[in-house]
């Protein structure tokens, strides 16, 4: 059995996909499809399970006498913030008669300058921000300046340095809405107690982490479709489809002058005047028009007749019958010397006019 070469076998099967088409549809398209599905799944997870919480609750604890937030901490997450402080007694707290008293905790809204003036010379716990979404970043420090003795006996809640002040037993809470980065909260702890700090923010606008994954998934899905259709097409087929369009674009355009000449004078250039002064169509004599003053001669096929022998035998312009019968008599007519001379003269005249 004769074996057919591999190249010939592929040429006899035009429907077989090429290697380029197989790679694009079998490898590249599935990769883009899987990436598109993965991106869409990640977008759905970021919109549901991994969606950022609108409620942020961070905690911290300190043993300092005062706690103050740094400028810019209150509007760190959102303009609406709530701060709660609880006083927890330490081991050496208590009254002299052995009866425990409920401590009073005060909180004031003020500026960083006024807070520094009140806490000068005392240990202060500074709330600098967030370590994470559940923990406050707190650092201990001593306010610069000399400690001021309160000889007049002005209590914390009675000072005129605060914009807003609240004092409660065991714990205090204050909710506010501010965009001022210089606003701070100052908390005064009772002696012998530690402070439990809690800050809560409620966010109105949440970051949308799902939209970038949705966009990437749509783009990858589009690339998968293109890889299976346009990019998988053989370059030769694409060139063949582009060639007719290029030929149509490259077709010669008719100028305005040519269009007007064809529309107004369609037969211009087809008429000429003969030597006798009569106008007739160019090429009319050559086509054997019966209205022409000169008739074109009949063309003789030399393969059918021996013209020299026929002329010597008949001696004139008579029509003789050939060996092939009466059917060929019309095509083997013999012309006379006068007709030949007239035809040659007319042909020379036409050539001079054409020049």
Write the layout of secondary structure elements.
Elements (H helix, E strand, L loop, with lengths): L5 H6 L7 H29 L7 E8 L3 E4 L10 E10 L14 E8 H7 L4 E10 L2 E8 L21 E6 L1 E7 L5 E6 L4 E10 L7 H19 L6 H15 L6 H9 L6 E3 L5 E3 L25 H8 L22 H18 L1
Parallel strand pairs: 2-5
Antiparallel strand pairs: 1-10, 2-9, 3-8, 3-10, 4-7, 4-9, 5-6, 11-12
Brief synopsis:
Helices cover 31% and strands 23% of the residues. The protein has 355 residues and is of the alpha+beta class. The strands form three sheets. It has a six-stranded mixed β-sheet with strand order 6-5-2-9-4-7. The protein has a four-stranded antiparallel β-sheet with strand order 1-10-3-8, with no helix packed on it.
